[in-house]
Specification:
Blueprint: E1 2-9, H1 14-27, E2 34-42, H2 55-65, E3 73-79, H3 87-97, E4 102-106, E5 110-111, H4 116-124, E6 131-137, E7 179-183, E8 192-197, H5 198-204, H6 216-229, E9 234-243, E10 245-246, H7 265-286
Parallel strand pairs: 1-2, 1-4, 2-3, 6-9
Antiparallel strand pairs: 4-8, 5-10, 6-8, 7-9
Length: about 290
């Protein structure tokens, strides 16, 4: 079984990516299957002439981090020609150009235990469907719709707890016995270490009309709902007691003071939202 981890990072996320590289290196002792780490450093959204740290610093560090992936195959790309402007561009390109058994989307600000990847891969071998999503659990989040993913330890917490939890605390907590369970809905955050079958993502794709960034995870959820309505076997599973956490608490970044960041996230997200209904209808016609 081949699993491709897809990572998009901006220069000011480089230290977070290095921490993840070390976690994955530690966890590599559990891995017997083929892994491809597919990472792109996006240099397009920085005004380098107005920045006091050169792009070469980040290029050098990105290439240096590659040494931690001596246990797997790597695809390390540096983009500065405006081809990759955001995460949707990265995911779209990987889906269309490669054919592993599974893709894993990993955001640079996600905290996870070293054994996370191996447990996801082992779980995928137990799944019978061709189209599937396998998700870790998470701490309490924004509203009740996310509770289906929340680990029991955190269900009693108030909504908004994600802003207060020390994300690194999950590394030291025994959340309980690991098990795999199907859920009746489709719910996941795009870069939260979800393992998704390549066949599913090649069917849904990331539509060109979405542009560089935004709602591709919501789109895949909607596509899965439509597939289920059409009696196409698709399922989401959760790994009980395997917890990941997004890093809200320690998000302050020293690089931001020295980089002139071009923030187009809101613009890109609006573009994707405007195309969402149309693309879901296109997918419905497709299936």
């Amino acid at each position: 079984m081949t699993t491709q981890i897809v990572i998009h990072l901006l220069p000011h996320e480089i230290d977070w990516f290095e921490w993840q590289a070390k976690q994955l290196k530690i966890g590599s002792c559990y891995i017997k299957d083929k892994i491809i780490v597919d990472a792109t450093l996006n240099l397009n959204l920085i005004n380098w002439e107005k920045s006091s740290i050169s792009k070469q610093y980040f290029i050098n560090k990105f290439n240096q981090i590659k040494q931690y992936f001596d246990w797997c195959e790597v695809i390390f790309e540096i983009n500065e020609n405006n081809i990759c402007l955001g995460i949707d561009d990265k995911r779209r390109t990987s889906i269309r150009n490669y054919s592993p058994d599974n893709f894993v989307y990993l955001d640079c600000d996600l905290i996870f235990k070293p054994e996370t990847l191996s447990l996801l891969i082992d779980s995928a071998k137990l799944v019978e469907e061709e189209y599937y999503i396998i998700s870790p659990q998470i701490p309490k989040l924004w509203d009740f719709t996310w509770d289906v993913l929340v680990n029991d330890i955190y269900l009693k917490e108030s909504y908004g707890f994600e802003k207060n939890i020390d994300p690194y605390s999950i590394l030291n907590v025994d959340h309980g016995e690991i098990s795999l369970s199907p859920i009746d809905v489709f719910k996941f955050g795009g870069g939260w270490f979800n393992l998704i079958s390549s066949k599913l993502l090649k069917l849904t794709d990331v539509p060109d009309s979405f542009g560089p960034y935004g709602i591709d995870d919501t789109y895949v959820m909607g596509c899965c709902d439509l597939m289920k309505q059409k009696q196409i076997k698709v399922k989401q599973y959760i790994i009980n007691n395997l917890v990941v956490a997004e890093n809200y608490k320690y998000r302050d970044n020293p690089y931001s003071k020295y980089l002139d960041i071009i923030d187009k996230q809101t613009e890109y997200r609006l573009q994707a939202h405007l195309q969402f209904s149309n693309e879901l209808n296109n997918f419905l016609q497709k299936i």
